[in-house]
Amino acid sequence: MSINKKATIVSAVLVSSALLSGCGLFGGEDKKEKIDPPQTVSYEEEDVVTEESAELENKGKEEAEETTAKTDVYLIDSSGYVVSQTLELPKTNSVAKQALEYLVVDGPVTNMLPNDFRAVLPAGTKVSVNIKDNVANVDFSKEFSEYKAEDEMRILQAVTWTLTQFDSVEKVKMTLNGNEMKEMPVEGTPIGETSSRASGINIDTSMVTDITNTKPVTVYYLGGEQDSYYYVPVTKRVSNKLQDNVEAVVKELAKGPGMGSKLSSLLQKDAALIGKPEMKDGVVTLDFNESVYSSFEEKIVSENLIKALALSLTEQEGIEGVAVTVNGEADLVNEDGEKIEAVTRPENVNTGIY
User: InterPro entries of this UniProt entry (predicted)?
Assistant: First the structure.
């Protein structure tokens, strides 16, 4: 907030400040700017940024942060994928219930929807949530069953993945007007006792001929368009013969999305691991061949590729972070010339433009 003052001669001192943020690839680095020496300026009726006004502005931002919290809600994009979008929602003690309320068509999410995204649950749907023993027991009102058949899997996945973002929730049990719901009400998709992330999301079986001898892995591809990219989780089926899920995830990222998909992979098709992944203290180290470089001459590894690897591999149990080497060398840099460190999974998936 600026304060207007009328004066004839004022000494304006330009002050630069460093923007503080978290370190690592999911945050920024401290930046400093060179400032010019103070100059004397004459003016009438101009806005002056004083120390007092700067403090008021910072206080306003802090108060706003105290009243809101970043929450992932899974919405549907223009290609029909279920995708996490991070929204600033009012702070509440009922975060799980609130998250589902922001999935409802014509609900509170309406004015917050990103471009080309739509809400998931039918208009008018009301929810109640009770969490016990890591299971979110969700009861939907009768409006829940008023969705289009083609959205049935998307709704099941959006509800499950929205709720399981919270540490206290591992599984979801759903009822309709208090009545047990073991299958979805329109197309009859089986739910069983509970649903979980193990069931997958945006499931792609296009490259599978015998699904009985496969297992699921979830990888993150890039969706959207330039200046508004976002990460899309896709569950693919891989052969049971691939005992190491880490290697399976890397191979699927290199293979890329299915035919006709609007998604893209950031890992080149000929990029491959040249050694067994090594695990230490929850961090898995991947040693790639030189095809992992986005620029071979400058030996640059794409920052967005590292993010995709981190998101994909931390879906695997026991993996908390990812480190990358090339031919055993760890001194790698991203597009900004910054050294690449081990990366952990971000608290929120899609928080901005990539």
Answer: GerMN
Residue 116 and residue 134: Cα distance in Å, rounded? 33
Digit-coded pLDDT (tens) for 40-93: 444 344 445 555 555 655 555 555 557 999 999 999 999 999 999 999 999 999
**What SS3 class is residue 250?**
helix
Q: CB neighbours of 44 closer than 8 A, spacing ≥ 6?
A: 6, 8
Closest by Cα among 62, 31, 349, 55 to 218: 349
Q: Measuring CA to CA, which residue among 38, 39, 48, 42 is closest to residue 5? A: 48
Q: pLDDT (tens digit, 9 = 90+) per residue, 212-258?
A: 889 999 999 999 988 889 999 999 999 998 889 999 999 999 999 98
CA 311, CA 48: separation in Å to the nearest integer? 44
- Quickly tell me which residue has 């880490």 as its tokens: 246
CA-wise closest residue to 101 among 131, 141, 149, 134: 141
- The one-letter code for the residue type at 330 is A
Angle CA(44)–CA(45)–CA(51) in degrees, nearest 5? 110
Helix and strand totals (H; E) in the chain? 5, 17
**Amino acid in the structure at residue 282:** G
Q: Which residues pair with 269 in a beta bridge?
A: none
What residue ranges in 145-261 does DSSP mark as E strands?
A: 171-176, 179-180, 214-225, 228-239
- Condensed to tens digits (0 to 9), the pLDDT of residues 274-330 reads 999 999 999 999 999 999 998 777 789 998 899 999 999 999 999 999 999 999 988
Query: In sequence order, which ranges of the chain are alpha helices (DSSP H)?
Result: 51-67, 95-101, 152-163, 245-255, 303-313
Taking a C-beta distance cutoff of 8 angstroms, is the pair 257, 243 a contact? no
Query: Residue 198: how many CA atoms within 13 Å on its side-chain side?
Result: 10
Provide the token pair at 168.
Answer: 């206290």
Q: What is the pTM of this model?
A: 0.79
DSSP annotation of 309: H
Distance from C-alpha of 172 to C-alpha of 231, rounded to nearest angstrom: 24
Q: Could you tell me the CA-to-CA distances from 64 to 58, 108, 110, 238 in Å, in that order?
A: 10, 18, 21, 45
